[in-house]
Amino acid sequence: MTAPSLDQLLDRADALPSLPEVVTYLIRALRDDNADLETLAHHINVDPAIAARLLAAANSASSGLSKRVRSAAQVFLLLGADRVINIILASSLIYCYDEHTSGFIAPLFWRHSLGVAICAQALAEQTGIDPELAFISGLLHDIGRLLMYTASPCHVLKALDRCHHDDVPLIVAEREVFGYDHCQSGRVLANAWNLPSDIEDAIAAHHEPDGFDSEICDLVHVSECLSHALDLGEIANNRVPDISELACARIGLSWQKFSPRFAEIEARFDDFRFTLGL
Questions:
Q1: Which of 129, 157, 227, 271 could form a disulfide with 124 if both were Cys (CB 3.0 to 4.6 A apart)?
Q2: What residue ranges define each of the domains in the chain, with the CATH number in brackets?
Q3: φ, ψ for residue 129 (rounded to 5)?
Q4: Summary mean pLDDT of the chain
Q5: Closest C-alpha among 117, 119, 135 to residue 255
């Protein structure tokens, strides 16, 4: 059986649930200066699972306080809007796309995605790029793998076997088996989901950013490499991808100045893993 082409892959995208409403709202809100917390609170209140996770996170953070957090308004006051948004984005995606096809372990997939998102947010804070755009771009960077798993698990397993046993990068193994890689399939899915073009480009460029002229592409690529270097996702046979020096230069990254934040990144990652049950 031959692997599905990119066009056939798109036809099978319907097998994946559409993006949760709260995620599409938040992605739009990232670019809307008039977006308000009241509307966001409404989206939280209509999703009991999200509300429960936010309250759990808030009460964990407020363990030294005498009163428990009981409302979305209190959550915003305690955690801050940025952290609330990140928890909503991550929890919505993780629990919506909890795939269990053969060879695909959803928690490992989302741990890595979360690791890249945390690295991207920290790098954005350091380099003056929008931290929320960085977080969601990092969180979604590997969605092409999700689509490929859903469409053809047997070919994905073949690519993973080639990757692990012959010690070649995953995108190389995917191109041999499928004729394309998860960066390309991710771009197809991002386009089908009508994601903003800069997020779509970041997904497409996260392994090979040099042909793109975009800070967010460079940032997500560097974050991908850093998450592997810090082993945030606890990936079996973890290998650090080759990093683009051009991407580092274009975002003005100084490793000497940034490296003291590595412990903070690891602590943020552990905190989010606990909050999200990963």
A1: 129
A2: 1-16+100-278 (1.10.3210.10), 18-96 (no CATH)
A3: -95, 155
A4: 84
A5: 119
* pLDDT tens-digit map of 95-149: 777 765 555 677 888 899 999 999 999 999 999 998 988 999 999 999 999 889 8
Residues 6 or more apart from 100 whose CB is under 8 A from it? 106
3-state secondary structure 150-213: HHCHHHHHHHHHHHHHHCCCHHHHHHHHHCCCHHHHHHHHHHHCCCCHHHHHHHHHCCCCCCCC
What's 14's DSSP letter? G
Give residues with Cβ within 8 angstroms of 169, minimum separation 6: 163, 207, 239, 241
Q: Which two tokens stand for residue 183?
A: 């960066």
Angle at 197 between CA 194 and CA 200, to 5 degrees: 80
Virtual torsion, Cα 75, 76, 77, 81, nearest 10 deg: 140
Tokens for 190? 């991002």
Per the document, the length of the chain is: 278
Give dist(CA 38, CA 33) in Å, integer. 14
Is the per-residue pLDDT at 183 higher than 90?
yes
- The span from the CA of 117 to the CA of 113, in Å, is 6
Model pTM score: 0.88
Q: Dihedral through CA 266, CA 87, CA 89, CA 240, nearest 10? A: 10
Residues 185 and 144 sit within 8 Å (Cβ to Cβ): yes
Q: Say how far apart CA 215 and CA 59 lie, in whole Å.
A: 36
